Amino acid sequence: MSEEEKVKTQQPKADYLMDDESENVNPTPQTESSDYLAAGKLKGKKTLITGGDSGIGQAAALAFAKEGADVAIVYFESDEDAQFTKNRIQEIGQKALVYKGDVGDEAFAQEVIDKLIAEWGTLDVLVNNAGEQHYQEKIGDITAEQLDRTFRTNIFGMFYLTKAAMPHLPKGASIINTSSITAYRGSSTLLDYSATKGAIVSFTRSFSQNKEVTDKKIRVNSVAPGPIWTPLIPATFPEKKLESWGKDGALERPGQPYELAPAYVYLASSDSSYVTGQTIHVNGGVVVNG
């Protein structure tokens, strides 16, 4: 079977971190493109991607593998999607590690890094991508439990993994955080989610200037996706909202996960050697002036 045929026929169910209903998503999110031309930009790199079992994380994981990186992924609950991602990375020809658990648990985050270092000895690229969101029209409907859960996944997880990874990141390593267009233009129905994504942008800018980072020439950047079609979307928004969802940008359509992957490859590779503290906007043409 040709590489193009594999991409077309082996797309997974593809869920997102907190959603296990991906088989109901139509159309299926596309995490690979047969048009992608790899150039060995990450050859020999050891990489870790949270929320890497599906959606944006899976797209980045497969692109990293095609660029020559070994890839470890962290996922929350979808065993089938995680297994697909692992198999696909190995099929591409790279090593894969898989860790299941809650990134918002500091002990688990430390365990992931400890096991990865024991296996590979180093970590060159950390992608903090795991995230969740919950649609609420009124702030009064956001429970303390929901608020804690959203921040624990989106913010605490990023802090915990970065904190655990820092002693092991070599000179010139790269940290990439997944922010969102909502950090810049807001979202009236994703208040807690938008707040976490704004915090991720601020963390990225701040940590990139931290002496611990600058002394090791580690670059810290983020990617701010716009409306990307992952199972998180139909699982989050009311059906009536999906008719016009993602069509307000210049390209007038939602994006697919694979369309974000090159941004992660760029920030992970030496192509972005003079880029740190920045956010790349991949949003279909919505100008956010940020």
UniProtKB/TrEMBL annotation:
Keyword Oxidoreductase applies: yes
UniProt KW keywords: Oxidoreductase
PROSITE patterns for the chain: ADH_SHORT
Bias (Polar residues) ranges: 24-34
Region (Disordered): 1-36
Presence of keyword Glycoprotein: no
InterPro entries in alphabetical order: NAD(P)-bd_dom_sf (IPR036291), Sc_DH/Rdtase_CS (IPR020904), SDR_fam (IPR002347)
UniProt superkingdom: Bacteria
Gene3D superfamilies, per the entry: NAD(P)-binding Rossmann-like Domain
UniProt record similarity statement: Belongs to the short-chain dehydrogenases/reductases (SDR) family.
UniProt cross-references to PANTHER family, sorted A to Z: NADPH-DEPENDENT ALDEHYDE REDUCTASE 1, CHLOROPLASTIC, NADPH-DEPENDENT ALDEHYDE REDUCTASE-LIKE PROTEIN, CHLOROPLASTIC-RELATED
Protein name: SDR family oxidoreductase
